[in-house]
Design a protein that fits this description.
alpha+beta; Aminopeptidase; ten-stranded mixed beta sheet; 7 helices; 10 strands; globular
Length: about 230
């Protein structure tokens, strides 16, 4: 049976794991002929309001994916603002909303081997929502590529039509589209599919547990350690 470990930690508490996350992402991009934009260490590694999800294979501990939940503050700019803030100033009002505790689910990536085993964006997505929920986040934003929009809708994200062209931006290139999406209610998750909602609620209350899933290629075991 295929086994994975999903771990969560505050970035500043484990810089070594952050660098493993970055290196794994770099290697994946190289497979597709894409280079990292910068070789410098990202600011989020030293940001006390960034939480990292790291996926490793069991038992060999190979890094296979991950994501970040970055709480909104004035210390480190959100990737969402870096990406499309200049295109629409309303992004700032969306993100810096004094009425709500907000965050961005960002930096999501997973290996081809994980995707082939039936574990990918959906699993990372509900783990990210769980982390945000545990942190007391009320609204969670994400900038989604076309291929991930359908997964985000299942997770409970809705298209943020108040910005851009009905939520859509030409990013990262003129011939490509990215969509701003938001989970509007992390407490009740009314827009999430029932099974996904139940998974998030279960992980929020019991962040250390092992769950067996039946995927399209067979059974997969995930060891969740989200007790940061």
């Amino acid at each position: 049976m295929v086994k994975y470990r999903f771990s969560a930690f505050r970035a500043i508490d484990d810089p070594d794991a952050c660098f493993r996350f970055i290196e794994g992402h770099r290697k994946l991009l190289e497979i597709y002929g894409i280079s990292m934009i910068t070789s410098n260490t990202p600011e989020w590694v030293y940001h006390d309001n960034t939480y990292v999800i790291l996926i490793e294979s069991i038992p060999d501990k190979k890094v296979l994916g991950g994501a970040r939940v970055q709480l909104v503050d004035r210390k480190v700019t959100l990737p969402l603002i870096d990406a499309v803030g200049k295109a629409d100033q309303k992004i700032y009002d969306l993100v810096f909303n004094p009425k709500f505790k907000t965050a961005e689910l960002c930096g999501l990536w997973n290996s081809k081997s994980m995707a082939m085993n039936g574990v990918g964006s959906l699993y990372l997505g509900w783990t990210g929502i769980t982390i945000a929920r545990m942190l007391g986040v009320e609204k969670l934003h994400a900038l989604c590529a076309p291929a991930t929009v359908r997964y985000c809708l299942r997770l409970g994200f809705t298209i943020q039509k108040s910005v851009g062209d009905e939520g859509k931006f030409k990013y990262p290139k003129e011939n490509m589209i990215a969509t701003v999406m938001t989970v509007e209610d992390l407490v009740n998750l009314p827009s999430s599919e029932e099974e996904i909602r139940n998974t998030i609620i279960s992980l929020s209350s019991s962040p250390i547990q092992t769950i067996e899933y039946n995927t399209r290629i067979g059974k997969v075991l995930i060891d969740y350690n989200l007790d940061f």
